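retry 2 of 3: previous attempt timed out while embedding prephenic acid. Reduced batch size to 1 and resubmitted. Inputs unchanged:
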Amino acid sequence: MSDELLKQHRHAIDDIDAQVLELLNQRAGHARAIGEIKGGGIIYRPEREAEVLRRVKERNPGPLPGESVARLFREIMSECLALEKPLSIAFLGPEGTFTQAAAVKHFGHAAHTIACASIDEAFRAVESRTCDYVVAPVENSTEGAVGRTLDLMVSSPLKVCGEVILRIHHHLLRQRADAPPPRKVYSHAQSLAQCHEWLNRHLPDVERVSVASNAEAARLASEDDTVAAIAGEAAAERFQLVRIAGSIEDEPNNTTRFLVLGHQECVPTGHDKTSIVCSAQNRPGAVHSLLAPIAQAGVSMTKFESRPSRTGLWEYVFFIDMEGHPDDSHVTAALNELRRCAAFVKVLGAYPTAVL
Ligand SMILES: O=C(O)C(=O)C[C@]1(C(=O)O)C=C[C@@H](O)C=C1
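retry 2 succeeded.
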């Protein structure tokens, strides 16, 4: 009896799969037609993608969770976009870093991710149009700002057109499950710091060695069964390592935020952020004069970060993220007033807030 029921369900699934397949290809046909209408212009439309993902989550009747259906549609759009034109995404390599995982989370698996030797090189690859977009880390919930990305954004002509929020999980990885106890643990210095307490408890006497990236640590562990690596899932997969202990980070909400930059400006979606960098005139109360226009216009600020300006001793620039788009009247008002009060204001970009 239960065999009969199982057969019925499988028949139903076969029928549905045939319809899903047909519909997916119909969808792809429309995307390809849109690509022809765009006629070699900008193919990737972050505002449209955010709208599609948001709607899928809102309309999802279950039982699949909203996050899961959004991830599936993320991949469907990635494949549809690749029919129009495959995208190339520059990131700080090597293969298997969290930045690559962020690029795949944002653009899906059909995009080509291109490993670069530094964040500078990744920016240059897009500025010179060798790659279409760059994904760069901008802040981590435990380690704070990524200074190099902030500095590059001040001078780069690229515009921010998206953000990616990635939960960072670190795993203890080995070449094989039955390897002898490790002599050394390799990882990036930040990851060793983020797993400090776990290491003290579980591997107190094992030497900790910092290397250039977690992916490099994983590569080393894949070649030597006497060492372990701390790295993420992408590096584990890339180097076919075995997870000995999972999610060993001390801070359970360890999250990194990445920005996506390219040559385009996004139109408003109703759920946007605007990132700016500005500097205050050198006089008392100057920082207050930067914040007051934002508060007075009723705009919510989601980030305020200061950095030495690199042009004068003890001069600072301020990175501010606010909710809304420069086309929204309250953001327009805040920016106009800011331009009047500040020594320098640059809009780094306006983009849809992360959906996934
Ligand atoms: O609507 C478009 O402009 C499309 O090209 C279609 C589509 C999609 O698959 O939905 C694909 C790529 C774009 O980034 C946005 C959406």
